[in-house]
Amino acid sequence: IEAKKNQGISLKPNNKEVKFSNLGHLFAFDNGANVQIYDFLNMTVFTGLPNQPQHIRNFGTSTPRINCLNWTALDKHLLIAGQDHVIDWKLKDEHKLSDKMNDNYLSIIYSEQLQNYITTGEKGSINLIEGKFPEATEHVKASFDMPMKELVEMKYPDVLFCTTTLMKSQKNSGNQQINPNELTNKSFTTSLRYFPEFKTTFEDSVVDLPGHFGDTRRLRMNYECTKIFTCGDDGCINIYSVTIPQDINSTYIEESGNVF
Q1: What are the tens digits of pLDDT across the range 4-41?
Q2: CA quadruple 245, 206, 163, 24: dihedral positive or negative?
Q3: Are the CB atoms for 40 and 27 separated by under 8 Å?
């Protein structure tokens, strides 16, 4: 196997959000207050703004910080959650469909099951944005004591996953790596959270599993929806097993172990 660098893209410092499309041919990343998309298939025909390479599409968000990028199922829309906006960027028309004002948005997905947007905020809320923009309305569906991010929807059965994250006042500037064998349930400050009945209720169906000592940074699920992986400031990768019994309404998730 031979790997080599083909091209570099100059970015502003402190960009942190990147997201491959579901089909893998588009790569979205934040660049300051802008979001840019790199097209791997149509580099010579992808239309960009003046002074932009033709294979990069650019979109100015007007939000000072971008917290989340997510693609819809068919990669026709890029969803952006920012410090004071959520945005639905319809790529075919190359324009913003929406923005809604709220406290700091941490995550956004489009739920195929609910046919609505689900967002999370820094104050611990889960919100539903219903209807078509610009007439869409936003409703707080549930509020919790910790903020949530990294929303992932499992299609069968219908389960919504997320991770809890620390509030600004709780975050430590220094990361502490620890031995996972020395942890107890009381040691964890963030968790893997899931909602097995989110189509009807959030507050009455929430389940928390031990997460990380410190902030949780990322959550990913494998293609078969049998494993969940999280990583955090404690230097650990947590692996969770998802078991779907014959009664699909009783999905069972357990922690498999920790890996440095």
Answers
A1: 766 666 666 667 788 888 888 888 888 777 788 887 77
A2: positive
A3: yes
